[in-house]
Amino acid sequence: MAAAGSAGLPATVSEKQEFYQLLKNLINPSCMVRRQAEEVYENIPGLCKTTFLLDAVRNRRAGYEDPHPRVRAAACTTLGQMATDFAPSFQKKFHEIVITALLRTMENQGNQRVQSHAASALVIFIEDCPKSLLILYLENMVKSLHSILVIKLQELIRNGTKLALEQLVTTIASVADAIEESFVPYYDIFMPSLKHVVELAVQKELKLLRGKTIECISHVGLAVGKEKFMQDASNVMQLLLKTQSDLNAMEDDDPQTSYMVSAWARMCKILGKDFQQYLPLVIEPLIKTASAKPDVALLDTQDVENMSDDDGWQFVNLGDQQSFGIKTSGLEAKATACQMLVYYAKELREGFVEYTEQVVKLMVPLLKFYFHDNVRVAAAEAMPFLLECARIRGSEYLSQMWQFICDPLIKAIGTEPDTDVLSEIMNSFAKSIEVMGDGCLNDEHLEELGGILKAKLEGHFKNQELRQVKRQEENYDQQVEMSLQDEDECDVYILTKVSDILHSLFSTYKEKILPWFEQLLPLIVNLICSSRPWPDRQWGLCIFDDIIEHCSPTSFKYVEYFRWPMLLNMRDNNPEVRQAAAYGLGVMAQFGGDDYRSLCSEAVPLLVKVIKCANSKTKKNVIATENCISAIGKIMKFKPNCVNIDEVLPHWLSWLPLHEDKEEAIQTLNFLCDLIESNHPVVIGPNNSNLPKIISIIAEGKINETISHEDPCAKRLANVVRQIQTSEELWLQCISQLDEDQQEALQELLNVA
């Protein structure tokens, strides 16, 4: 087929008819015909595809036969696929014509299936469409969706028609999700109809519609917020409770189940602590679903062939004419239920305490539930939240629960085969250590953990060597390289989780963990060798940063390993490496003893050089640069004999404020308060000349949300502002150099601190 229209010329009637035939072939039941059509379709330029598809969707008459409804439905589906494949550029280029065409198609009452496909395509398009673009069409979109909802509701009442309505409520939920608080003005026109659908959809064949509508209501409630939603909260909760009551008597595969589970979680997020009263009604069916055993079967090959895809089974060929099968629909429900239990434990804490023991006994064995990755992820995520709930009952109860969790969690780190799941388990273990604190691991646990982490690090290096070998093989090409890079990213991600676990150990055990750590020391030293890839050096430095921060001054005994790497990596081309090095130099000054004085002196000119680099404040480099500025502040504050403060201070003040790294920004503001409160002459400046600059730094800190009213620094900064206000002339001089936003930010600071 010719790439019609690719030169900017309008497509001819015959070309368009040819394209519609192609779309028909794309949905042809014959695999051979469909594959041939897919090959042709892949070679048509993107803009040309969009033009043809929109014509097909809109059913335009141009001297040729109208497209068949199946073609229009296929065109909608294909638009949705393009919106996924080419997001977000597809949305940015074609937002007006696509949104308009899909809405018109949804309004056309000629065919329910076409309407449903159009609504589905709109959901996909919205997902990656910038909010600023959606707002442009909001009024027309909402008006159109509401008018269709009213019509479809009447069709449901008259003849039970549900197909387009099922997809429509999902589309409304997506719009609400995407525009959030902008949906508030339209809430009152949608909510009565949505509640009416739930009330009407009671027959068995309408259960899916009921579930999707409940999901939609919860999305709308979350979008508009508690204040607006409270007018309907009680009524909606009663609808949910009635549905929940009905579900308890229903079969396990009721289509409403997964929608109800997610809807309850959103209601919890909307209502907060007010949701606690409903938890007893929700928790038992949730635990029942999370506890469900998977449907499995051992079948002959002939039996497998007789089972259709619609049955929701997946099979693995075991040889000898036998296959192992598992029903996946139940697994999805189980995973969703497990994720919701995690959510309730996280959000409700005290309100969840009485269910903690029951849930932990469910979740720990699921760390080995290899039928579904998301079940294991949820089981891992639950652990630190369950421990925080257990802590409310006292230290003895907490200790008993940790004894139940700890050993299986460590073993899961050593045995988990999937990288994504492994990273969640490692993250959960690190958080759990931080919850439990010093002494939470016995000698056996530490020995097992040490062996596992050592194996992970050795495997990291071995995998790098194997990838280098593959790059020398004859079949090496760009596709192989992309695969190798994916493997490398997975390895690096696990390395970050090794770093997280070590961080949790250093921050809780302090220098007491160092003798155990020394079995890993040669591997960490290897990470920061100059020949290693930059992510290795970044994370190796981060591990030494943690040792310096949490184990000082004992950390100095390792200085021979990290002194030169720390200094040399200040010149690295990668900002992530520079940031790790700069942070380390800062914590040397802050937490290290006198042994670190000479190293801090050597660091200052290197830090200054990075800050003064021409591109130091670009988006790519700014975080590293701000860590350098903060490090110099720490050296001046904690190791003042290592630097000429009067010489460096004016430069340091000129580099403020910090915008991106909030943690380092608050460090610099605290040091600035120290200097101002001591009336340091260099900071105040001759004749108070630096005070306008200081006031602007404080204002920017508030605007950038660096300063929160809970932080003690906020009160100190507010007092600085009030002190300057005592001199009317000086105050006028300061605020005359501020814009309106900065002046408002200062006033807000004074109001809250």
Number of helical regions: 36
Q: Give the biggest sheet.
A: 3 strands, antiparallel
Quote the distance from N terminus to C terminus: 70 Å
Radius of gyration: 31 Å
Helix content: over 70%
> Stretches where pLDDT falls below 50 for ≥5 residues?
1-11, 60-65
Overall morphology: globular
Measured by DSSP, the beta-strand proportion falls in: under 5%
Average pLDDT across residues? 87
What structural category do the secondary elements indicate? mainly alpha
Counting DSSP E segments of at least 2 residues, the number of strands comes to 3
In the sheet with the most strands, the strands line up as: 1-3-2
Summarize the structure.
With 753 residues, the protein is mainly α. The protein has 36 helices and 3 strands. It has a 3-stranded antiparallel beta sheet with strand order 1-3-2.
What can you see in these coordinates?
The structure is a single chain. The protein is an all-alpha fold. The protein has a domain at 656-753. 72% of the residues lie in helices and 2% in strands. The protein is built from 36 helices and three strands. Strands 1-3-2 form a three-stranded antiparallel β-sheet. Strand 2 (313-319) and strand 3 form a beta hairpin. Helix 8 (138-159) packs parallel to helix 10 (187-200). The protein is globular, with a radius of gyration of 31 Å. Residues 1-11 and 60-65 have low confidence and may be disordered.
